[in-house]
Amino acid sequence: AATLLGPLLLASAIALAAPDALEVPPxxxxxxxxxxxxxxxxxxTAEALRAMGRLxxxxxxxxxxxxxxxxxxxxxxxxTTSATLLESYLATTPGGLYAVLAVAFAAGADTxxxxxxxxLRLLSLVILAPFVVRWVVGRVxx
Length: 142
Fold this sequence. Notes:
It is a single chain. The chain has 142 residues and is mostly helical. Helices cover 82% and strands 0% of the residues. The chain is built from seven helices and no strands. Helix 4 (56-80) packs across helix 5 (85-92), helix 5 (85-92) packs parallel to helix 7 (111-141) and helix 6 (97-107) packs antiparallel against helix 7. The protein is globular. The two termini are 33 Å apart.
């Protein structure tokens, strides 16, 4: 979380102090997105690929359910805000914030809105996770 929240808080402070001060050069942005892709891609091993093969069908079903749930949340968000359906879907979709940010930027979506909702989702999960885990452990123990 520190690698995400640290730069996020620093950029937020700079943006609030001087709104026009942050302009990321296109070359730096594209290099950063490429490095993020490398970081993710280089984590794959032969053992990880074999495990993925065994889990393919359950994972595909779970992904389809998550996408459908995110779409339903996006419809609700679109109905209650001025965001487009694409922006709402990107804002509610689970997954890596960096990947969602790259897709939002490439699609011309409102990246500020997408990152704000994704950050709210992330913080909500961090706050609620201990309570949910205690509840699940309590139910399993009974």
